[in-house]
Amino acid sequence: MPLTPLDDIYRERRFPWPAAVLGALVLAAVLWFALRPGRGKADGEASATNEVASAAAPAAAAPAAASAQPVVPGELSEEDFRKALADAKALDDQGKLYDERELLLAALAKAGSDFAPALERTLGALSTRIYLEPRPGPDKVEYVVKGGDALSAIASRYVCPKELIMEANGIKDPTRIRPGQRLVFPDHPDFAVRVSKSLNTLELTLGGKFFKKYVVGTGQNAKTPAGTFVVKDKIEHPDWWSDGGKVIPYGDPANVLGTHWLALEATGETPRVSGYGIHGTWDDTTLGKQSSAGCVRMSNADVRELFLFLPRQTPVTIVE
Questions:
Q1: CATH number at residue 277
Q2: Under a CB-based contact definition with an 8 Å cutoff, are residues 309 and 320 in contact?
Q3: Which of 31-40, 136-145, 146-155 has the lowest mean pLDDT?
Q4: What is the rounded distance in angstroms from the CA atom of residue 131 to the CA atom of residue 185?
Q5: Spatial distance between the Cα atoms of 22 and 241, rounded to a whole number of angstroms
């Protein structure tokens, strides 16, 4: 039957559905091949790349999840305290004194006022053992004496007090070292001192970490000057100049300086003062209080130990 004019119009406007569907399928196939993962690589290579990327994603996020939490003093429980001491004793029995020291330092960082004093006493005794024995360690030198060596020159080279080298190695006469003799001593010991006038304590640190704490006497009526200083000079068996300018020799009962003297020199913006230092005392009842004419005083045994440890130019901070 011949087409009517209406049929003619419908045929011209009718959408070509079969062709459109076929074209869409072809286009989708082309896009999939063009954009699929690993394009231009073998299938095995593309798969390996995706596995690495998947494995790397959790690793990248791990540091944030495992970031160290700040240590809060007072977190150490009594159980943790007793465990730390037991573990420290086990390490001590094995001769692992450096590991023992690190364990106790970690415990001290978390300890509150209940446990800190005991940990400080334990650490102080341990630190003294480590440094006053010829024990090899990561911060020590093992030096073999050569012909023509002088102990003072060795001490100067490693910025370690000659007296400390002698004490640690059982040397009585510094002029009598022999070629081939093995010496073990600290290498450039990074000591620092902090004195608290209100607490009457002197804290010694090594490399910024706690080393030992001592009870001291400070100046009456807060006369001890606060500020920053360095150890300018060290004298064993010092004489003392009284207020009247009279020299009172070492050994005289009127000499108040004890067995050792470490002279202090102000640094930075601290006002320049003279005649101040750290020294011993013959009267230990004056320790732990404001009792001196302005200097920092220690027991003779403690000031001798400090004298051994500190090189000249060691920084000293005195706080109110």
A1: 2.40.440.10
A2: no
A3: 31-40
A4: 7
A5: 111
Strand partners, 248: 240
Tell me the angle at which helices 97-110 and 116-131 cross, rounded to the nearest 10 degrees: 160
* Chain-centroid distance, C-alpha 223: 31
SS3 of 110-125: the string is HCCCCCHHHHHHHHHH
37 found inside a domain: no
Residue 262 in 3-state DSSP? Answer: strand
Q: For the residues 92-115, what does the mean pLDDT come to? A: 97
Token duo for residue 297: 């005083």
Burial class (CB in 10 A: 0-12, 13-18, 19+), 122: buried
**Phi, psi of 278, deg, nearest 5:** -110, 130
Q: Pairing relation of β-strands 290-292 and 209-215? A: unpaired
Please give the Cα distance from 303 to 163 (Å, whole number): 13
CATH number at residue 168: 3.10.350.10
Taking alpha carbons only, the member of 252, 256, 274 closest to residue 265 is 274
Tokens standing for 169?
Answer: 């190695």
The answer to the question of residue 221 being in a domain is yes
Domain containing residue 246: 191-319
Amino acid at 132: L
pLDDT tens column, 184-216: 999 999 999 999 999 999 999 999 999 999 999
Determine contact, residues 235/258, Cβ cutoff 8 Å: no
